[in-house]
Design goal:
The structure holds two protein chains of two kinds.
Chain A (H helix, E strand, L loop, with lengths): L11 E12 L2 E13 L4 E5 L6 H9 L5 E10 L2 E2 L5 H7 L4 E4 L3 H4 L6 H13 L3 H14 L5 H4 L9 H13 L5 E5 L7 H18 L2 E6 L2 H7 L2 E6 L2 E7 H6 L4 H8 L53 E2 L5 E2 L31 E10 L3 E4 L2 E6 L2 E11 L4 E5 L6 H9 L6 E6 L2 E2 L9 H6 E4 L3 H4 L6 H11 L5 H14 L16 H14 L4 E5 L7 H18 L2 E6 L2 H7 L2 E6 L2 E7 H4 L6 H9 L40 H5 L4 E4 L2 E7 L4 H12 L2
Parallel strand pairs in A: 3-8, 3-9, 6-7, 7-8, 17-22, 17-23, 20-21, 21-22
Antiparallel strand pairs in A: 1-2, 1-4, 4-5, 9-10, 10-12, 11-12, 13-16, 13-18, 14-15, 18-19, 23-24, 24-26, 25-26
Helix pairs in contact in A: 4-5, 5-7, 7-8, 8-21, 15-16, 15-17, 16-17, 17-18
Chain B lengths: L1 H27 L5 H6 L5 H11 L5 H13 L13 H36 L4 H15 L2 H15 L20 H30 L2 H8 L4 H38 L5 H10 L3 H29 L7
The chains are: A alpha/beta, B mainly alpha.
The complex binds iron/sulfur cluster (2 copies).
The site of one iron/sulfur cluster has 13 residues of chain A, from loops.
Chain lengths: 692, 314
Amino acid sequence: MKKEPHSSTPLLELDRLAVTFYTPQGTVHAVRETSLKIQRGEVLGLVGESGCGKSTIAWAIMGYFQSLVRMEGTIRFKGKPFTKMLPSELRGLRGRRIAMVYQDVVSSLNPTMRVGPQLEEVLRENLNMGKQQARHRVIELFENVNLAEPERVGQRYPHELSGGMQQRVVIAMALACDPELLIMDEPTTGLDVTTEATILDLISELRQRVNAGIIWISHNLGIIARIADRIAVMYAGQIVEQAPVKALFRNPSHPYTVGLLNCVPGSTAITEARTKLATIPGTVYDSKQPTTDTCLFEPRCSIAQDSCKSGTPQFFDAGDHHQSRCSYWSDVRPDIWGKNEPVIEAPEQTKAKPLLTVTRLRHFYGREQHRIPFIGPVGLAPVRAVVDANFNVGPKQTVGIVGESGSGKSTVARNVVGLLSRSGGDIHLQGVLLEPRVEKRSRKHRAELGIIFQNPAAALNPKLHVRHAILRSLWKFPKLRGRVARERAAQLLESVGMDASYLGRLPSELSGGQQQRIALAAALAGDPQLIVADEPVSALDVSVQAQVLNLLREEQRNNDISYIFISHDLGVVRYMADEIIVLYAGHIAESGPANSILKPPSHPYTETLLSAIPVPDPEVTPSRIRLDGPVPSLRQIFKGCFFAGRCPRKIGPVCDGVMPPTVANPNSPSHIIYCHIPLEQLSEIQTTSTGL
Amino acid sequence: MTRFFVRRLILIVLTLFVVSIAIFAVTTVLPGDVAQVILGKGATPQDVETLRNELGLNRPAYSQYMGWIGGIVQGDLGDSLYLRRPIAELLQSRLTNSLVLAVFAFFVAIPSAVLVGIWAGTHRDSRTDRVMSTMSMVAISLPEFVTGMLLIVILSSTLHLLPSSSMMLPGTSPLTRPQILIMPALTLTGVIFGYVMRMTRANVIEVLQCNYVRTAILKGLPMQRVILHHVVPNAILPTITIVAASIGWLLGGLIVVEVVFAYPGLGRLLLGAVETRDVPLLQITTLIIAATFTFSNLAADLLCAVLDRRVRLS
Ligand code: SF4
Ligand code: SF4
């Protein structure tokens, strides 16, 4: 092996890189003067909200752009500028010396090609391997990324693999030629928390072995804290702070970094009382705006001074390789965005009559299908998406439902509002039985149950002004017309923090957070008793997410609404919910008051969810209880425990053969756990192993 | 796979059944009395009545239908009223003639259109791409009878290269004089070529923007390999469905082309049946066209299922 030229030469260096796109919609300044260095064996985390230029940096390094683009500045790989390389030399870098793992895994693999050949071709083209040799190497690579059955995975098509497996295949592909630089662009976004945790484990294990430089792009500080050695925070296409990971978390020196840290609901210790999230107001500096000679963060900054408007701040050295692009870096304190105020707990509602009662709710998708149409044996059993779910929602209460994708949480939501018609069980609203389908329900009932979706754009007609969405709801139930309706609409918009001028806008002119506010305003128009919120913030950036969560709480207090709040993110659910229901494979694993659920004893599944939450604190050693094995088929009827196939705490054949009992927590009688392990024992193992 | 196939087959049989009822219903309510048509203007009412009885036209509609469909199932297609010959006999040569023309057009048009489409898609906005795209646009927008006439004027009347009419002696095969096939086939090809080429081009462009193509490029593969192994197989899939759909179009075009060039095929037979109010013949030819249509769709679906593992069981 050749000796490295100079150990001081960085593996990759960006020197005042600027990337500008020329699109039909205008000029986009995606990256404005960014300088970065990365060494071999180092993991550099790149964080920021969307639209801050993180991914553009990745594409610039890979030299891949589809639109008209201008790049300024220099990228040097081992000291040699890209501009001085021949085209063939540059092509040789791709895939061999520099490899990339993508954000959207599903779409990153060729759907009509088996995954094995997709890796083999890399080896054969780039390393001139023979067919046999390549095949063996691929099996090795699959072993490296801990794929089960490495000899057989290659025979499958991408759609036959789960999201986690697909991501492992893509990682294996990136590692195929032993790259020196690995770019990971949000590689776990879109995966379930439990899968995300296993991928993170894999990467921390691999980084010891591969000795490559890794650039890890993420909007999630929790993940960055776990994986990175050094962090660069980006805002508006510029780097605003750079520091070793511990220094950054201990002593953030740019107001933006502090804001990002504040608005992650998971950042306080799990059992701590819920707090109102301190948020960064406003939205990200528009990338269509030209760079001005000011601090670009100034419009949102809480400690901005007049001098910030005159002159771009330079990097200030806060010591210890810690740099901040804020002239007042030494004034930055953790509480500059206001304290995370404790939330006034609503008084216990258990005695009050429940608003909504759900009893033995079932939802099966599809009928039994026969092998030959109409006759013959049953070939395909229905998908049992929700099986016998019981729960209540009290007045002014928030019930959080968590679970991975496919756990049935959205199905529950859709049954409650009547978008799906249940296969069995009853749903009562204030003692009155609700019709399964929304069309059959009375207007009053329809108005009393609002819904907010993950993707607000889908709920808003893109061709109609915001006004119509709200007026239509006002017209349908409170039956307001004319001026009264218009005034009420303006009022509603104000209550969700937007002024009346937005009534005349089209949904496409609004940001994701603003669209979600409009959706909430429309849901509030009917004066609902209960709003079902299905992953309302998972598509939003952290800072916006915090704003929307705060807003939801505020509206609850002002209008006495109850929520069914659905999310895959236990951190968010914990922030919102009074009661939590944990769903797994269509079955309730555990339910009860939030405080009690989050403390041991917990159902083993809840335990894995809790330990999978990436904690944005590099000093916390993550617990290592992981789920493995495949997700169970929902077409089967479980004989024993529904979680037995993947349970890390499984105690034996009793789990497979006997349905777990319903056990109430003696300290909190409404807290129910379905598990064979006695509670004292659960409590004991969990306290010792997770340190909760 | 077999399950999928069996399901589709059952569906097709059901569809054809419904179609046959529709055809029957529509043709029996057509204005004009068949017996009157056969006997001509001078026939006496008694003669008409006798013939109506003979033909079973006085029976109730459902029994007429049962008789008709029962005959078809048993292979008895009935007699042509106007030509006074068994329909099966008529169909034999006409069907082969049409098939020869269709197959000829199909196997020239589709492969070349796909190839040109791929090339144009990967060389988007190059000069050749623009020329090809414009030409295909023109080909699509011109109706067959215009293209056909143009060809006749140019190739036949002006250049005297080819015979202007494709008439044949009954009982001879078009393959004995392949030159008469060229112009009808070219006309038929024009539209399909333009259509399929544009579709392929659009699909290629779309696939080129897919993330997996990006992956393939960034893996360091040469562009040629990317296109051959990653772009083409995925771009071809939707094209197949379109090709299948264009079979219906081909059938429509076939009728026009056969008329323009006086080519003795199924299309002309159908037209003749309409002109002469030959109801039984009309019914059978329509049914055949419907059957061709459904079966070609099935073939395309099966082909897609074989090529694309994702659609297998859906
Ligand atoms: S330079 Fe001024 S505006 Fe910019 S972050 Fe620092 S204090 Fe805020
Ligand atoms: S019953 Fe058994 S398998 Fe189910 S959660 Fe408890 S220990 Fe795990």
